[in-house]
Amino acid sequence: MAAQCCCRKAPGAEAAPARPPPEPPPALDVASASSAQLFRLRHLQLGLELRPEARELAGCLVLELCARRPAPRALVLDAHPALRLHSAAFRRAPAAAATAAEPPCAFAFAAPGPGPAPPPPLPAFCEAPGAEPACCPLAFRVDPFTDYGSSLTVTLPPELQAHQPFQVILRYTSTDAPAIWWLDPELTYGSAKPFVFTQGHSVCNRSFFPCFDTPAVKCTYSAVVKAPSGVQVLMSATQSTYVEEEGVYRFHMEHPVPAYLVALVAGDLQPADIGPRSRVWAEPCLLPTATSKLSGAVEQWLSAAERLYGPYLWGRYDIVFLPPSFPIVAMENPCLTFIISSILESDEFLVIDVIHEVAHSWFGNAVTNATWEEMWLSEGLATYAQRRITTETHGAAFTCLETAFRLDALHRQMKLLGEDSPVSKLQVKLEPGVNPSHLMNLFTYEKGYCFVYYLSQLCGDPQRFDDFLRAYVDKYKFTSVVAQDLLDSFLTFFPELKEQSVDCRAGLEFERWLNATGPPLAEPDLSQGSSLTRPVEALFQLWTAEPLDQAAASASAIDISKWRTFQTALFLDRLLDGSPLPQEVVMSLSKCYSSLLDSMNAEIRIRWLQIVVRNDYYPDLHRVRRFLESQMSRMYTIPLYEDLCTGALKSFALEVFYQTQGRLHPNLRRTIQQILSQGLGPGAEPGGAAADSEPGLLLGDEAPGGTISLRDVNVSA
After folding, report:
1. What is the pTM of this model?
2. Could you count the other beta carbons within 10 Å of the beta carbon of residue 420?
3. What is the DSSP pairing of strand 318-322 with strand 264-267?
């Protein structure tokens, strides 16, 4: 298609536009250094050039803003040491821009050539004849903020009026950024082309572009991206085009989103339609598998969600499968869910993860938690909606089984952390300097789910509660909320419950749900899943009974190959909880199940292999080696290395790591090196890495030495 024109008519002698009604400032966010409360962010534009050989992103950011009060001295944005700012400039927007957004500006990209790296892109505005000069330079400085970011202070002109539109233009380069993951071709499945993806949750996108990096601030965005020839670029946007004559991709997100949901991926990706408004993107060798597993299913889940919670607001729902280096299972980027390709072999986990991300389209993306201290407002509600969707599409028994599996993990995490752990609160107090990613735990998901489920039970009818959630989304869509917004809306929607003072019931007070540590105050009735959970409990009891030979004979008569994945995973989790087991029990378990489990998916195999490691069962160590030699994903390597290094198998772990480290992403390699370094003595550095190397991203549950195994955490954001 032809390049878009950026020209506009001169404002002339038009009447002054009406001042927009004042909006409340965003909620304070201790994880943001920005001055977001002083400004209204109307739109942001990005000009991005991907430079995979240098592992560098060159960018130009155009922020369209209004000051809430006259004469603000400075604009403060969240940034990161990985960002090198080249310049800052100010541009006064034309009068017409007060009532209508300007057309997207163009960006000029420097031609590649020998010598030093070219500068970042330049914005190109079409100024009206006789207009004042477009831009003037601004002074700026970067100051430390926390270990996950910096503050960027840009001095503004003194005469700036309240509600007067203006633009701040920042040109920068980003290298070694926590949000930007560069992959050499050999770290992809096809080994054909370089690959790059971004991961902004929770506070990483401040290393992608300077921003108000808080979920309290939302705006629309557009982007122009230049990439090497043959590389497909995708973004979390409602519109996308490729301008062939310019060799650039153009994107536009028409709905307001927080900074962490601006996402980009580029690589050897091909599409296949799987429904009327959905397609999958994947490397060519993965595309047939991804298509066959999801064709028709995503539309079924979207339609079920729409029946429950109202229209899907984002147009398309596409999925891109990322290489194993993707640091979490899935991410709900609007219009374009990111999912780790490793999950393709585990059908039931794939179903749950995709439905969870579908649910985020209403809870998390449309209505967002205003601060990370109340992340349960996105995750707890999305988990509840996910289970309503699975009940509609896969039946109550399956939903109850999956819920039992997750609640089992929640209680395991509670036992490890203790009931007085502050992170077990739904309203967590985030101390300054603490990375919000550390709050991504099962309490956010499952305790949040239990509270939402309790609210649904108060009204006596799940369908009436669905009606409430539909009204809640309709009222707050494209905004950010706090818990009081949800609870006030609930009591307004159900005035009879307000009259009964259900928020103050002894022992179940809403305030106690939010601020008490410990397990959920009430849990759901899962009896509809008993046909699937009772066999698991019975088999576990057999293996812990005496005499062993008689119990093993009875257990071997139960054919777990016909079980659902969540049944087998729940059974193995119970055995893991009881480890170390008597050696004769482990020997019998291996004889009964080891070969069978070898043919099952990775979610099951890793659990069996953790049993092998935690019980020092040497006859099956070759299976651990084979598994680690074939895995490049954090979720399937970190738990095993953590278990290997807490027992007597550190030397085995080192040996396997030396043989496989070349196939691991540098961030994962450094994380495993930290795990291996513990207990190896001073100066020991597995793999020869510098002792002060920092991983690009450490989720809270992945930190070496943590007490919580990665398998216990739903790491679908």
Report:
1. 0.92
2. 8
3. unpaired
